[in-house]
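Running co-folding for S-adenosylmethionine.
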Amino acid sequence: MLVRWKEIYEYYHAMDQSPWGDEPSPRISSLSSLLKDGLVLDIGCGDGRNSIKLLQMGFTVCAIDVVEIALAKLRSKAKRMGLENALHTLLHDVHLGLPFRDSTFDLVVDSFTFTFIKEKERYVGEVRRVLRKGGIFLLEFNMQPHILSHEELMEMAFRYMQGFKVLRTYTFYHSWGCISNERAREVPAIALMAVRS
Ligand SMILES: C[S@@+](CC[C@H](N)C(=O)[O-])C[C@H]1O[C@@H](n2cnc3c(N)ncnc32)[C@H](O)[C@@H]1O
């Protein structure tokens, strides 16, 4: 599925809005029961609703995305909040692999980027490679344009989690228009918190 990410960000930023809202995923704050600090990779960070929350929680964040204006927006939000020293951004297409050494990160967050990854098995292998042993992977996704049920999403996720032990699973919905609006019961989505074995 071709998604014109740059155009989406240009459209929303022209109205001084974010396409995904500013509300972080509710699963992000739950991570504090597993990890107190460390280095996080936020894959497909967008304009940073989750990266900002992770910075506020005391993590050092490496945020990567294919759209420079989304990264620029994240940097300016972080600067306004005095959080920029713990933020590193990188313009990168994850289809080319993850440009980091083995066992670099304590936590990897993928919030709704997985949906758009073509070679999912290879991608999860890369996530596992850059996570340290015992590191945490938070994966959240839906399927588009053909909507999958919670059960189908769960089955799909477990198929790809080779080399991980799943600690927690979540099922939820979000609205058609916005992944951060979890009050509307429209699009089924799931999340997994897994530990790298
Ligand atoms: C649905 S948005 C989610 C943004 C953010 N994770 C959030 O939850 O607010 C998906 C993001 O993944 C990025 N993305 C899509 N394909 C990518 C790729 N191949 N490499 C890096 N980022 C990608 C898009 O630019 C977009 O910012």
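Result summary
The chain has one domain: 5-196.
The mean pLDDT is 96.
Job closed.
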